[in-house]
């Protein structure tokens, strides 16, 4: 595989999952975050999740935890991305924050390095426009929990080259994942559908049409979903859902994407889902998977 070193920007839930998945498939990985505390948390979480992965995925053997952890470098120094041939960015769904990251790594990384935007809604074409390499920018929308999801939504921006798509497919194949290629449009496919359902479920709660548990049970039993929309919101993060809806609302100027006020209230109250211990449900402890 040509991608000998991959950079991962953002050590949150998704970024940690991407880094784990890369390392347990034998890929040297550099994890960058502005917070040393976030990096320390990610290191501990990844080690714990490797053990859990072995318990739940006996059909896909991986190396021991120490060997996998040796492939991971955790740093607050963006300059360490100079050796990366591929960078996967996973920071919050905020355009101003993402824009600054891409301007920064565009100056640091070699001219042949490719950038993958792990976004739920932000335009890949827009990201490419702030760099000197728009043909080497594409979207890679990983689903949570990353190590056990078999597919990745790969988004082709307006200028994304065939070579960049091919490199992404090869990298994902090495990670034992299938790439599903789609074209750039805010929300893409999975999040445009999923966040819309979650937002509407939040309106149902706000309007007291049904209890949280009943809404989720109806969707799971009626449609065969493994998780209900409100359980999914807690897993992803209520704040992430809100930011995604705000991007869709701004992008399409369509009232159907108006974020539910309840989501805003929950984010203001710090009720973000599993990562905060309380969202639509209350959690006795943080759940890894």
Automatic annotation (TrEMBL):
NAD among keywords: yes
GO MF annotation list: NAD+ binding; oxidoreductase activity, acting on the CH-OH group of donors, NAD or NADP as acceptor
Domain of life: Bacteria
Protein's pathway: Lipid metabolism; butanoate metabolism
Domain 3-hydroxyacyl-CoA dehydrogenase NAD binding: 5-184
Pfam families recorded: 3HCDH, 3HCDH_N
List of residues binding NAD(+): 10-15, 33, 93, 98, 120, 144, 275
Positions bearing the site annotation: Important for catalytic activity: 141
GO biological process entries: fatty acid metabolic process
Ranges of residues in domain 3-hydroxyacyl-CoA dehydrogenase C-terminal: 187-283
Keywords assigned by UniProt, alphabetized: NAD, Oxidoreductase
PANTHER family cross-referenced by the UniProt entry: 3-HYDROXYACYL-COA DEHYDROGENASE FAMILY PROTEIN, 3-HYDROXYBUTYRYL-COA DEHYDROGENASE
Family: Belongs to the 3-hydroxyacyl-CoA dehydrogenase family.
Name the record gives this protein: 3-hydroxybutyryl-CoA dehydrogenase
